[in-house]
Amino acid sequence: MRVAHLGDSSAGRELVEGMMGAGHDVVKLEDPGDLREFQALVVGVGDARLEATVEMLESFVFDGLIVIHTCLSRGVQVLDPLEAHGVVAVAAAPFAQKRWAISALDELGETIASLIVGEMGATTVEYRDTERPGLAARVYYARMLRRLARHADLFEDEPPELLGNVDSEEIVAAFYAIEEPGLRRSYLESARRLGEVELREELELWALQEENK
Amino acid sequence: MRVAHLGDSSAGRELVEGMMGAGHDVVKLEDPGDLREFQALVVGVGDARLEATVEMLESFVFDGLIVIHTCLSRGVQVLDPLEAHGVVAVAAAPFAQKRWAISALDELGETIASLIVGEMGATTVEYRDTERPGLAARVYYARMLRRLARHADLFEDEPPELLGNVDSEEIVAAFYAIEEPGLRRSYLESARRLGEVELREELELWALQEENK
């Protein structure tokens, strides 16, 4: 399959790397006008830019194109404007070791997601759109904590791949789905500390501002 | 070897369970007057009660008795009053998967510690007394974070034994060795959150009070 890759989120990169490993031909999409050359498009942009990206893509997609976004905190319905043009719409994001959270609009989308994820040696778990923001917050929180733990002690034999990447802008976007006050507080403090130890200034600053609200 | 076990710290329990697994005969010490029946004594009490326990033991120990305390945040010198009575003094505490932090007053103590820890299938790392408080703080902080991560997501396949026990009173005692402000803040917030999710009220309360100082 010829696959176009848009965006630079770590989840998007993880998907296209897995697809390349499975033998697909992945190309960075420089010009959306080139989309006709591809069978599938990976939209690897973060939560905050997903709507605008979908809007931009609307005039370029076509019937039968597979469109996969990789944002854990968002369901598949954000792709509705593209689905109206006949694309097969899927949300697929890694949320644990070799497990991908899948949301699709129909059975064809689910089947295609299972095939692609299966080729990468991973399995899918289906989530409803409404479950995804809370799932993303829990997953990012746990990843922040594990990264902090790893930074604090250099003694554990924990394999680094268990750590998981987590983009600062996704940490920020997922925060607002949390309602429990204790978890909100701990999430912010973890983000602030992760900002300090991993030199993510924008994350540290955001957490500080939220704490002082 | 006949081994007496005093105290109920989790590190102490881990040591005597390992020694029992290696075939030693471990008995809970009910009356310090019975110490003469033993070749070794495991002092499994926390940081805050270590001095008082040593003082209490002073009139019961004897030449050649092996005395091991299991408090990670304390060096071996806290056992000096017993060493004056001819005991072999050792500090031995688990700080990572199958690794024990060892401090001893002499080569005999080091050798005995290596033998006991080796029998349990673990290895020793020697630490100077002055290094132990900072080591304990980092280790407890990392354990708190991993326990919180585990609580937040139930998806990871992380083996539970990687989590590590950590007593609330040891978390409290080790905190005061931390000088870096960011780490102090994150340590307190982690303790507070761990108190919330693991229902350790005294820990939560302590963290709250420290945060408001």
Automatic annotation (TrEMBL), chains A, B:
Residues 165-210 form the CGL2689-like C-terminal domain. This is Uncharacterized protein. InterPro entries: CGL2689-like_C, OxRdtase/DH_put_Rossmann_dom. It comes from the Bacteria. Gene3D superfamilies: 1.10.1040.40, NAD(P)-binding Rossmann-like Domain. Signal peptide: none annotated. Residues 38-93 form the Putative oxidoreductase/dehydrogenase Rossmann-like domain. It comes from Corynebacterium flavescens.
